[in-house]
Automatic annotation (TrEMBL):
It comes from the Archaea. GO terms for molecular function: FAD binding; oxidoreductase activity, acting on the CH-CH group of donors, NAD or NADP as acceptor. It holds the Pfam family FAD_binding_3. InterPro entries: FAD-bd, FAD/NAD-bd_sf, Geranylgeranyl_Rdtase_fam, Geranylgeranyl_reductase. Residues 3-168 form the FAD-binding domain. This is Electron transfer flavoprotein.
Amino acid sequence: MYDFVVVGVGPAGARFARRAAESGYDVLALEKGEVGTPLACSGHVSTDIWEYVPDAAKEKLFQNRIYGANFRIGGPDTAANPFYKNEEISNVIDRVELDRTLAEAARDAGADVREGHTVTDVREHADGVTVTASVGGDEETFEAKMVAGCDGPISKVRREVGLPEPGELLHGVLAFDDEPDHSDFVDVHLTVPRFFAWRIPRGDAGVEYGLAAPPGKEVREMFDVLTGTYDVETSHFCSGAIPIGPPPSVTSRRVFLVGDAAAQTKPFTGGGILYGMTAADHAVREIDPDRPRTLGEYETAWRTDLEREIRLGHWVRRAYSLPQPVQRAGLKAMSGRIGVHMDRPSSLFSAEQLKAFFS
């Protein structure tokens, strides 16, 4: 019997598998396809990402450094409202290679990482959990003391054990233009209902274009409008769900959710790489597979760390739906040098931000 079976080897699952293995636990991690594919989300992350990957991996992952963002009410020909720092705010990385790097780090730590394992059933018992997976047309069964559901916004684990759904699922799309772009500002367009569209320069890797919107909206049509205003042809189109709003509980008797499966994401950007890995670290610190009651300690720990940021993130997101005259006035008043951390909305009230605002 394994101490933990981890379902899903994205950033959250790989991070948990690595840290749990480093702590001496017997860990099996299952990925339904090939690690890193299909592409799940944008590679625009805060510089905190380097705290979570091996030092030697930075050269392979790094694509571009970002110092700010140009916010626009309309398309690329409308007035830009720049928000920036004098030092780099964020980096653009190879998103597929990030997953592979984190999975390899988990293997190096002693976790058994297996690809091509599609989990079809999760059953909790008094003393453990049975996980069934489809492997090349055959069926395999694994026993574990606990299961970590790290299998994304449409989580099979979450549904199998009856945990509640995220508050909302957005439909996100992105694609790429191969023309190199080493500029150091991203572009944000408040042209999408209840969210935004973006353009991210990726250095030699080209440019990423994307947007997200509530389900039912004509997302592909809006994406075509976005790329049309930039007069670009894109390729490698990707589409997926973005969970917003954690459910009231992410733990059951012997199962816990981490990352997108738990909607541990930023409501104002949809990004969840750093929040998911932060929650994974809390899970390793708090959960003892021989003591199911420690699942409650995980719930408390990750919510204490992230819940305020998520709540404030919801308030930031509301600004995307304000009337255009209000948006225009707000952007004009707030633009310029900032002191905000892109993962922490609470930094809007930091001494650094207040100093930047009044300078």
